[in-house]
Amino acid sequence: MKQIAFIGLGVMGGPMARHLTAAGHQLTVYNRTLSKAEHWAAQHGGKVAQSPAEAAKGADFVISCVGNDDDVTNVILGNEGAFSSMQKQAVYIDHSTISARLARQLAVEAKSKDIFCIDAPVSGGQAGAEAGKLSIMCGGNVDALNLATPIMNAYASRIVHVGKAGAGQTAKMVNQICIAGTLQGLSEGLRFAQKSDLDLDKVFDAISGGAAQSWQMDNRWKSMARDEFDFGFAVDWMRKDLGLALDEARANGATIPLAAMVDQFYAEVQAMGGNRQDTSALVRRILKK
Ligand code: NAP
Questions:
Q1: Where is the 6-phosphogluconate dehydrogenase NADP-binding domain (predicted)?
Q2: What is the per-residue DSSP string for 86-145?
């Protein structure tokens, strides 16, 4: 049983923290909107802290799952941030999707405080978090990963050590680049099938057993066909992630024109009011008839 501070009880963090209590760990939770933390603790037990620093004090592990670079900087490096109170030899795990540059900076700051640190963005969405079956791509040193793995096993079905600090975040960018292209292809295929007046059940039954199969096809074609998008991974988050990938591509010289184009398509979906809709809302910008 470990003392764990969990920061950020959103769509992903809430269920991940729940799996940790179910695994028998002692949790102290912090959330910017305090009422959410109080509600979580009333349901699952554990203590509620008033600041990240208070949550992190005396913890063996500090885990964050907040929004973007600014949010992680705030809750970890800020005046009331977790690093101001963490004990030496404790482990910091960040599950937020942020820039590789900030992940590397966190690793440097952690080392200067004798804290183990890994960047550990996740894939698998809300359903993966609820089911405890996330895929986690990790950056950092082996010692940190070995300490973090038994903890992350509570909500992961796959944990891969990709490389040094920042490599987990860079791998997550690869993930998002692949998803952007896949979803645009699926959107075009679906609209093409609709315009051709094909029986969609038969089409997707046939092609999902072949080379076009994907997680997006298996899990999203039906809801896309029904125009249902109020769930899942938000368009706003996807634009943040594609922005991170485009910045990184500018730095490493990679060309990702399809990801750049789909990012602009998502800007159109935002203009249609789809900010919090699932990324499969990409199909909305292609006319049906
Ligand atoms: P979310 O539901 O919006 O939750 C974010 C949580 O972080 C909220 O509890 C929020 O507090 C807290 N937070 C944000 N900024 C903060 C700040 N400056 N200080 C303190 N707390 C702050 O987001 P999510 O969907 O769980 O996503 C979290 C991270 O996981 C993001 O980086 C996202 O890209 C990544 N991710 C998400 C998914 C997905 O399917 N949702 C999948 C893979 C990865 P409040 O309650 O006050 O807003």
A1: 3-163
A2: PPTT-EEEE-S---HHHHHHHHHHHHHTT-EEEE--EESHHHHHHHT-EEEEEES-HHHH
Q: Torsions phi, psi of 34, nearest 5?
A: -55, -40
**CA neighbor of 86 nearest in space, from 111, 104, 50:** 111
**Consecutive 10-residue averages of pLDDT for the chain (289 residues):** 97 97 98 98 97 98 98 98 98 98 98 98 94 98 98 98 98 98 98 98 98 97 98 95 98 98 98 97 92
How far is residue 6's CA from residue 28's CA, in Å, rounded to a whole number?
Answer: 6
Atom 40 of ligand 1: nearest residue by CA position: 125
**Amino acid 9: pLDDT:** 98
Backbone phi and psi for residue 22, each to the nearest 5 degrees, phi listed first: -65, -30
d(CA 273, CA 276): 8
pLDDT confidence of residue 288: 82
Domains of the chain: 3-165 (3.40.50.720), 170-285 (1.10.1040.10)
Q: Does ligand 1 have an atom closer than 6 angstroms to the CB of 66?
A: yes
Closest to 103 in 3D by CA, of 78, 76, 143, 129: 76
Contact 40, 30 (CB under 8 A): no
Residue whose entry in the numeric block shows the structure tokens 């305090």 = 34
Q: How far is the CA of 288 from the centre of ligand 1 (A)?
A: 33
Asked whether 84 lines ligand 1 (CB < 6 A), one says: no
- Index of the ligand 1 atom closest to the CA of residue 71: 18
Centre of ligand 1 to C-alpha 267, Å, is: 20
What are the catalytic residues?
Answer: 172
